[in-house]
Amino acid sequence: MQEPSTIYKPIDPDTGVKTKFIVFLAIIVLALLVSNHQSIAVRQIPLIVLTGLIGYYYVFIDLAQKRRRETMRRVIDEIKSRDSLTDLSNRQLFLSAVYQRLKSAEYQNTPFALLLIDIDRFKELDTILGTENGDLLLQEFAQRLSHFQQNKSMVARLSGNEFAIVIDQLGTSTSFEQRIQILHSYLKQPYRFHGRPIDITVSGGYVQFPKHGYRVGALLQKAKLALLRAKQDGRNQICCFEQRQDVRAHLDHEISQEMGKSIALGEFKLHFQPQFSIATGKQTGFEALMRWQHPTRGWISPETFIQIAERNGLIMPLSEFALRESCKRAAQWSQPLRVAVNLSPIQFKKTDLVQMVVSILKDTGLPPERLELEVTESLFIQSNKRTIETLKQLREMGITIALDDFGTGYSSLSYLSSFPIDKIKIDRSFVRDLTTSNGNMAIISAMIGIGRSLDIEILAEGIEDKETLDMLRIAGCQEAQGYYLGRPRDLDTEPGFEMTRSETTPESAQKLHLVRNPYLCA
Asked: What does each C-alpha distance from 344 to 110, 143, 309, 354, 480 come to in angstroms?
């Protein structure tokens, strides 16, 4: 490769003109100097003229050219600092302007809000409207922001459909929230394209200076966290940065990004918690519970990753894995125990659940009678004919349908008789304080009574001591589950009763104290 010093570089036009001018004068001067017909005084005149002209050139002409170049440079820099689609400031100019404002003595004690805002589901809108109309939407959105902030350097399009704006304080300290809500309403007003109204929703996150920091990078990062929380909490809102909530939202976002890889690497495992018949003391089955052992974060709670999976769409492969793996494991047990698996309401909407269950049972060889599918009350709130038909088909196959966490949601007695339900699981929140709360005992007794009248079995979960178990037995509860009787365990490392061929029940069943139970002997 040729050395940099030898690479051809085009000559500056100004430099060429300058060179020609000097050469022309030099020729005239030389011609006069070599002339023998002039006196010394006459021959000095060209030298004086040449010196003056060169001085004039450099002092006036060259200075004017420098000014023109500087003006052109500023114009080019201005063009480069603007977003070509919306004519707003770009990221670099905006951050530079905020930085200069933070340094300015005039504004150092003047509070302001830094707001990040974007159009919800813009990619879907862009696809539906078409790229041309999508661009028009962004342009109109930008104009509305510009109307709210006259200083163009303080409003910007950062990327795609993400915008930033500095909100100045007007009046009291509470005006930030009021002005931002006004802006939010303004940005959501219908947009019109070719006479057709388009409604949008908008999400945002903001921070306040100096309350939330003094550095541009820190303020921008915190505004991003607030925007992320606004998205995760349902969109169509603007959130102010809150340290505890937004650090949590940031962590959830990181977990969400890592979840897909963890599923592929097999980091999700199933643990199984035993269930017992209170009347006989025999183990009736296991509930399959998902566990995630992250390589660096350790055990991640199901309460955390289940909600995240439902938001990012990974609940589908995760639920199918749980169902398939549970059936596969149960088919290998020597004891014909039942296995209970949780279903997500999303599975009823986005998959042919019946076909998937049939396929899994066929592949694993597990009889349908040994499978129990648990659903939550939220399924019935959003139910339709397809949901009811799906449950009926599963039940007709011999699969047990259980209603999980009963009493914690929008409990209604109407759907107990309207929907195909075989079992009710009383939530641990009622069982936990059973020995100290007369109200909880009354509620559980009512649930058991309703279950008996509708021929629905009742299982109480979350049993952690003998006294609670005895009270449930007296109330007529049929099945029991909880740490007192058995913790969830990895059956690969801790195999037990499920793999034996004898009729001996596990040691946990001895805690039911059936032999000394006077109520069963009566």
From this structure: 50, 43, 10, 14, 23
